[in-house]
Batch of 2 targets.
Target 1
Amino acid sequence: MTLAGPVARLNELIRGIELAILTTVRPDSSLHSCPMAVQSADGTGSFWFITNANTEKVEAVRAVQRVNLCFTAPAANRYVSVSGFCELIRDHIKAKELWHSDYKSWFPGGLEDPDLILMKIVVYQAEYWDPARARMVSLEGFDQTAIT
Amino acid sequence: MTLAGPVARLNELIRGIELAILTTVRPDSSLHSCPMAVQSADGTGSFWFITNANTEKVEAVRAVQRVNLCFTAPAANRYVSVSGFCELIRDHIKAKELWHSDYKSWFPGGLEDPDLILMKIVVYQAEYWDPARARMVSLEGFDQTAIT
């Protein structure tokens, strides 16, 4: 079972959307959301983010790995909901790949900054808004990758 | 403790945003989101929606009342995250107040349609994106209303 088809489809659905809404579950079970600059999913169906280890969203993910990423483009009537598992990873090589000079203001220590951590969100379900049916419909192909 | 101030502040923050992203927790613990047409919060700090009782989001809320509503206006750099408790209510008078002729295609039976149910989302935490600090900050005044 390859993910190439579903990932390509997903990336097509979110094309041009630069910010996603990340929703996490806090330790008190409340749901919290915040905007995140986002790139395409990689070949394994994962989204990567550079973030600060001392943030509420990272604290939330330490307790509950389930997250949602929502991509919206209201003018185009496009909405994509991604259910994922979030892993927290320290990986210098991957961080370097994701690094952008804008991050310097966040991480004065650059790639060596001890506060820098990576979030890897593995997609295991994706849905998109179908205007014709006026409801969210499943994007086939991801369910098989549910984390075991 | 009055909510008038915080509610007015919240409504100012979301002014002009017609669609919110509702995130719910499914019975399998996964997080799911979908767009919802939204109006201002009422005087008690609650958002009301007319919806269909036979939907995944209603099924989710029956199991887990915690939800998130996220309001986004990327062009204006505005993001508001609302943590809430969702109640499912059947109330003919309130439904009539919320009713709009567009709903007729969803509920052929009109206000008497047995599938029609109301979602009342009671805000108990709200945050908004502060561009100056480049992070979400709390909108004071709602924490006191945590559901007891």
Target 2
Amino acid sequence: MSDAVSPLALPFPDMPPIAGVTARTVRAGYKDWGRTDLTFVELVEGTAVAGVFTRNLCCSSEVELGRQNVALGRARALVVNAGNSNAFTGYRGREAVEAIMEQVAAHLGAPREQVFVSSTGVIGVPLPKDKARAGIAAAFDAPAVGWEQAARTIGTTDTFAKGATASAIVGGVTVHLSAIIKGSGMIAPDMATMLGYIFTDADVSPAFLQAALSAANTRTFSCITVDSDTSTSDTVMAFATGQAGNPRIADATSPGADAFAAALHDVCRQLAHLVVRDGEGAQKFIAVAVSGAVSDDSARRIALAIANSPLVKTAIAGEDANWGRVVMAVGKAGEPADRDRLSIGFGGTWAAREGQPLADYDEAPVAAHLKGREISIEVDIGLGDGRATVWTCDLTHGYIAINADYRS
Amino acid sequence: MSDAVSPLALPFPDMPPIAGVTARTVRAGYKDWGRTDLTFVELVEGTAVAGVFTRNLCCSSEVELGRQNVALGRARALVVNAGNSNAFTGYRGREAVEAIMEQVAAHLGAPREQVFVSSTGVIGVPLPKDKARAGIAAAFDAPAVGWEQAARTIGTTDTFAKGATASAIVGGVTVHLSAIIKGSGMIAPDMATMLGYIFTDADVSPAFLQAALSAANTRTFSCITVDSDTSTSDTVMAFATGQAGNPRIADATSPGADAFAAALHDVCRQLAHLVVRDGEGAQKFIAVAVSGAVSDDSARRIALAIANSPLVKTAIAGEDANWGRVVMAVGKAGEPADRDRLSIGFGGTWAAREGQPLADYDEAPVAAHLKGREISIEVDIGLGDGRATVWTCDLTHGYIAINADYRS
């Protein structure tokens, strides 16, 4: 954890424990530091698992094995290493992951395929097997910890601990979701990989858990961007212990399925926003809302083009209602758009409508809006009903300082 | 022109006049400044024309009309306005362009379709017709100027005047090419649109001129990037007056066609590099060379993903041989790549080979290379024969200062 807390940080929420989930943290010493850096989460037998993983083709062994084993649907444990990403380390990196899976599986008497591993930190250095082995052995005997301690231990360049919670009523039974995430920047492969874990006591089939997580991902984690870069290790997983005693959610037609999916979506949205709020050098949280596109997908691609534009992001940093740069970003997205139908606003005030600057454009409310911490950019394409919202942060001197001055 | 000249600037070359081309410059006063801001270039009757234009869908009226009229193959004049891009100005912007075309066509007794107009500067403000009209009338009587004065007059945020020249022997006759360009950043729609003009005395058919320019564009202007943003007005045009008296180049099989195309490619490459050398805040000129991809196109997309990555660009700014960030950028390009075959080097020294850090990696020559102004990043994908080189600059505090502090 860094010392200078993001000005966009939120306090860690009060999050309920989840029956069937026990987290423990130790210092494996992956780097020469005093902090805890290994998180071991034990899950009760029968826990369902789902996951979404980076699309980066140069992904780590952790991601390859995770993607493969999540398809089997069951989990007994999660290990998260902070300080070393184990990415781009060839067969030695893979051996280290397999050794961790073996050790935990033997301890729990569980199949190896039910042990999930994530690693985050420097790239290109194989995870030291001896440190991992000793750390995990220590973790078996370590005391259980609360969510905030677990969130801190999975963090690397994060400037604050990130958690989110929600609940839903399923067949008359309240189920809880408690979740933690790390990531600050979307996403530096060195140190700022996004790793998110959602734990729930709901009884859910692995298939429905995966469907609900994938759907939520499309409108949350896939809709945030800090710098358009994509980590080799990004991972979001959901674990459902089934301890709440609700009537089982087998599929989308089961009672309570919609309520559960909505709560999962809510947690994912909160987590995604927290990552943006810890964007490297971020001073402003920006929502880009696109409407009137030919489809929702098209709207999302346009919104991402705007959110990834360095010129738009620096304009917001400079508190400049520079709608010309937004026009440019819409145009370069390559999606259907017509200059003469385009409308652009900031904080609910239109600056340009149907391709032309507004004759009676009132700059005062826009200028006041841009001085705040929470910025919205509204774009209407004027062609259809497609809409999407994407979240990002501004691009500041802080981003350059963090990324130009960091040494691998 | 800005006061602080880019540290990567090159001196303006000694460029020959081109028979059949006369440039004049005046101050139309598009902004409240003392400098010349309108360039009028008269071309001898029969001049062939070709052009490549921005793919930004929200392009200006100048680009729409230029793209349309270039297809007719002939040009008699070029007008370049600096200080106002006339983009996103609806029908009033279009009227201003058509008025300029009318005025020049009437003066020269030429078809309106042979008058080409470009505008660069602030967006969203219709080009003032009265100022343009008075400026053009004055230009008809202004003295002819040299290339450097023309290059300065088309410039906006450029910190130095940019020109390039080359020659070729066509059927025993030497033909000359002299070219100017403006742009600093790829590309801020406000002020840093890329506008390039190549003039040659060669006798070339419009069809071959277009084919040669399009081919050169693919490997030059399409291979540079400063910040991944795309202007609404980017334009590169070639004008061939036919005054050299060479045997006409009708098509690719004509004698001298290859020599002429090579000279045109050379000029385009020089111009493209000059734009990168004036990249906003640039301290280092970076060549990204990708080999071993499945195709040349694939190699170019991978090279652009690397060159557009803020994390790679800040690493170079920090003189950090951070090959992990290059791996990340390769992976996110979405092109065929295999982590375990990937090799990455800097300045001719491999840092990682076939997916793993080099055991005997010698950091000293790499560190020395990264302290220089001219940086190369070499990436071998290890899958095929596709190769491409892309040019960019580093991402520095200067970029943020220029773009966050500029007010529209």
